[in-house]
Amino acid sequence: MIFRLGDFHFPDDVARLYPHTPGRPWVLEVGFGDGRFWPAYARTLPEVPNYLGVELSGVSLLKAHRRLRDAGLDNAVLTKLPADVLIREVIPHGALDAIIVNFPDPWPKAGHTDHRLLRVPFFQLAASRLKPGGRVLLTTDHDEYFEFALEQARASGVMDVQTGDPPPAALETKYALKWRDLGLGAHHASFTPTAHRPVPHGDVYPYPEDESTVPHAVLTLPQTFAPTAFEKVTQRSPQAGWTVILLDLYQGLRRDGWVALAHVVEGDLTQEVLIGITAREDGSYLVRLAKFGGPIITPGVKAAVGTVTEWLEGQGAVVRHRGY
What we know:
Elements: E1 2-3, H1 14-17, E2 26-30, H2 37-42, E3 50-55, H3 58-70, E4 76-80, H4 83-89, E5 96-102, H5 120-129, E6 130-140, H6 143-156, E7 159-163, H7 174-181, E8 187-193, E9 216-220, E10 233-237, E11 242-251, E12 257-266, E13 269-279, E14 285-289, H8 299-314, E15 318-323
Parallel strand pairs: 1-4, 2-3, 2-5, 3-4, 5-6
Antiparallel strand pairs: 6-8, 7-8, 9-14, 9-15, 10-11, 11-12, 12-13, 13-14
Helix pairs in contact: 5-6
């Protein structure tokens, strides 16, 4: 099962995600690569937990999906999403039994440590989403990042740190085999929460809105409106924390109208959304977020609809109604 961004609830429910196995433990793997770890690791457990995997590579997601499907692991959900966004906004408080991180990107260059996942904010967030007795399991080949992660976990004030041998399945991943062939080993640590301080779900990622509240505008276009060229438009709101870039405008093929492509950045969340400009029977036009790709309707996505509307106003449009 592959979940798109808009398929999740914020936060979500184990029973909804895994309707056939709601009572099983719930494990999250961050950066599952081509999916080699989970089938091997699941075989070592007395009961196959519900599995949630998050990865940024679309190619890796498809490879992992095939691998888990072939292994008969049907209580698995894979998604393409930044890990900290997923953990903060999708996972309920105290819901996970384990978070597994195998061979994370160490961001080794000077000044890049802020890009690392395993920092104090991550450990505090993980502690709030783990059940009592739950653990973060880290396996890495990178000496400096390993020591950095141990220091950050201790500095978080919410994690007990234990080091030891990695599970055998972690040593069969693509990166583990690469380093083993070079004669190098891997480090392993287990982080167990000593406190579960609440980290709230943000209000930037709300539940998907229903049909009646999808952001939109109704306007009248001048009869001379017939764009043949489009220059990129950028709007930012430092206060609200979003950036909207209108990348291009396309002529509609089947209906009278156009489609705008917008790039929306809000903190760790990036979405590309389509905004339709569609003719209505009364001669007006509806500017409306398209559901293609299952976007989350965030303040930045609403601002994208507003940016398209304002651009059209600059072309002579008269707005009758704003719903964003």
